[in-house]
Design a protein that fits this description.
Layout (H helix, E strand, L loop, with lengths): L3 H29 L1
Length: 33
């Protein structure tokens, strides 16, 4: 069962991943241009 703490943890991990992913995408877009 998912507790609120686990749910928050999952969202935090996903958020961190999205931030890193955005940075990588921006880097590669600059290289592509």
């Amino acid at each position: 069962m998912l507790t609120p703490d686990k749910l928050t943890e999952i969202f935090c991990i996903a958020d961190d991943f999205c931030k890193e992913f955005d940075l990588e995408v921006q880097k590669h877009q600059v290289e592509a241009l």
